[in-house]
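Posting for a labmate who doesn't have an account.
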Amino acid sequence: MADDEERDEGEGESAKPPRNVKKLALIGIAVLALLGAGVFFFMKHSRKSESQVAMTPKEMEKMIKTHPIIDLKPFVVNLNTQSSENSKYLKIRIAFKLDNPQVAKEVDYRMPEIQNIILILLGSETAEDLGTTGGKLALRNQIRHRVNSILTLGRISLVYFTEFVIQ
C-alpha cells in the first residue's frame, strides 16, 4: 500500500509542472518580448525620414541655382608660433554656400578682399587652436562673419573646409 501511495504522489506531482519550468517559461516570454521591442525599434529608426529622401533632379537643380557653392583656391599659410624653429604650416581649402545666386558675382568681384581677410585670419591662428574640433568650428564662424561683413548683395550661409592639413 505504501508503494501505491508513493506512485499516486509521484503521478500527482507529474501532473503539475515544476516551478522551474514556469520560471523558465516566464523568462523566455520576457526575452522574446525584449527582442521583439528591439527589432521594432531598429526597424522604425532605420527607415529614412522624409528629410533624408533623395531629391529629384529638378529639385537638385533648383537648389543649386538658388544656393550656389563657390570653391576657393587652396590657402597655404604659416601659423602663429612662438619661434621660427617650431613653424607650422596650414593648407586649407574653403567653399562657401551662398544664400542667393547674386552673391556669387559679388564674391567673384571681391575675391582679392576675401582672400586677404582669410589669409590674415589664418596667420593669426595657432596649430594648437586649430587642432581641436572647437577651434575649427570657431574658425569657420569667424570666416563667415568677416566675409559677410563686406558683402552687400547677400550672405554666405555656410563655410565648408574641403581640405585641412597642419604640418
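Reply:
Got it, the C-alpha cells are right above this. The two ends are 97 Å apart (CA to CA).
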